[in-house]
Structures are given as structure tokens and as C-alpha cells.
Design goal:
Blueprint (H helix, E strand, L loop, with lengths): L2 H29 L6 E4 L2 E8 L13 H23 L5 H23 L3 E9 L2 E2 L5 H19 L7
Antiparallel strand pairs: 1-2, 2-3, 3-4
């Protein structure tokens, strides 16, 4: 399979993540009332939140400059990941999968930040009064992608030296 076609599937994966992320955020924004939980299971709610900061609302009350700071970081990282994907060896499909998921998640949240000025979150997981920060599909893709990168690093440990 030619190199360009082989890497194209990982870019398509990133695009699918962006589209699913934006679709679910659109549904959440249209159907949910802000900050009002809709119970799904005893440990899971759908709760619309807007996050102008980064992960776990980091710098969410910084006055607005953080929007463009995080936008710049997301653009730089997305370009770097897209380039890295092109050079991933065929045998390291788990690395490529992780990078594709991370790229899609980063672009999904980047879109929100540029267009809306905040990231739309709506998935709320909790247990006995303890609430994990609300997140979205893009965040989930980034997390799963990071897990793939970690697993790949264990599977290919020492091969760089050989």
C-alpha cells in the first residue's frame, strides 16, 4: 500500500472523531439546559458545561487571553501530530491509532475554542458525591489515544536501540 494511502486512514480516523465530537456537542447544546444534570445511570449524568480553560478548567477564569494561548498550543500540537503520523512505521499501528485519536480530539476541542470561545463538555461521571470534571467525546479520544501511545511504548521498548 502506498505510503500516502496508508497514512490517510489515520487522518480519516481523526476526521471521524471531530465529526462525532461536534455532533454530540451540538446535541448536548440543543437538548440540555446549562448545568442541569440529566441522570442516565446512578453514576453517570449528561450535564452541559462550557470550559473556557484547559483540562480540568485550568485557567478558566484568566480573563480571556487563555483562549488564544490554548488555541496556539492546539494548532502547533495538531500540526506536529499530523506530521508525526506520516512517519510512523507500518508495524506501529497502535502508535498511529493513538495519534489519530489525539489529533481528532485536539481538533474537536480546537474548533470549539475558536468558534465558541469555550469547549462544550457534557459527560459527567460521579460516585457517592465525588464528581469527575465534566468532559466530552474529544477528551475521551485524547485519553484513549494517550493510552495507546503508552501501550505502544511498552510494546516497542528497546527496538529503537536495535
Amino acid at each position: 500500500m502506498p505510503e500516502r494511502i496508508r497514512v490517510l486512514r489515520w487522518y480519516v480516523l481523526a476526521l471521524v472523531v471531530v465529526l462525532l465530537d461536534q455532533y454530540t456537542k451540538g446535541l448536548a447544546s440543543a437538548q440540555l439546559e446549562y448545568a442541569r444534570p440529566v441522570p442516565v445511570f446512578f453514576w453517570f449524568d449528561l450535564t452541559l458545561h462550557h470550559n473556557p480553560g484547559a483540562a480540568f478548567s485550568f485557567l478558566s477564569d484568566a480573563g480571556g487571553w487563555q483562549r488564544w494561548f490554548f488555541t496556539g498550543i492546539a494548532v502547533a500540537m495538531s500540526v506536529a501530530i499530523a506530521a508525526w503520523l506520516f512517519f510512523v512505521p507500518r508495524a506501529q499501528w497502535l502508535l498511529a491509532l493513538g495519534l489519530g485519536l489525539i489529533l481528532g480530539g485536539a481538533l474537536g476541542n480546537l474548533w470549539d475554542r475558536v468558534v465558541l470561545g469555550h469547549v462544550v463538555d457534557f459527560i459527567s461521571v460521579h460516585w457517592q458525591g465525588w464528581y469527575f470534571p465534566t468532559f466530552n467525546l474529544a477528551d475521551s479520544a485524547i485519553t484513549v489515544g494517550a493510552g495507546c501511545l503508552i501501550l505502544d511504548s511498552f510494546l516497542h521498548r528497546g527496538q529503537e536501540k536495535a
